[in-house]
């Protein structure tokens, strides 16, 4: 497999903000510290990762606490760079990742359901409510649909926040291209595939 580590690469990127410079000119602090964005670059998932294929999915724990996921999708051909599936197919790659993240969330929800079911046996109203919510989420994930696409209230989202569900996080798909980027045909196909995933 092209990826041989479960440890993430971490990058800190300062966020340029002209307002900060304006404020610094007025206040004249000893030091100016811009806001930063921390990126965690993890190994790519392969089909079957939830069953132990490739490196498995244990490294997903590294991204459970992130605010959003940027999924970099290969959109270029090169005989010098091996593709794990043997062919470049961005739509298939996005589908594999979406499926594997849903399966990882499904395992998390199943564990949460077990705990909620035990607590609900005693008649605990909060546990009964949580169990019903987790059953709805499980049914949604069983269809390989992301939790972020569910119509959950703010209270319901807060209720399951402790589970750190990966498919509840916003996702940005990034087309990894070379040269001049996407051709018109590929660009149109990319937009169509993105529209289907919302």
From TrEMBL:
Domain OBG-type G per the UniProt entry, residue ranges: 1-198
Keyword Nucleotide-binding: yes
GO MF term (any one): ATP hydrolysis activity
Pfam assignment, any one: MMR_HSR1
CDD domains: YchF
Cross-referenced InterPro entries: Beta-grasp_dom_sf, G_OBG, GTP-bd, P-loop_NTPase, TGS-like_dom_sf, YchF_N
Keywords, ordered alphabetically: ATP-binding, Nucleotide-binding
PROSITE patterns in alphabetical order: G_OBG
GO cellular component: cytoplasm
Membrane-spanning parts: none
Keyword field contains ATP-binding: yes
Protein name: Translation-associated GTPase
Species of provenance: mine drainage metagenome
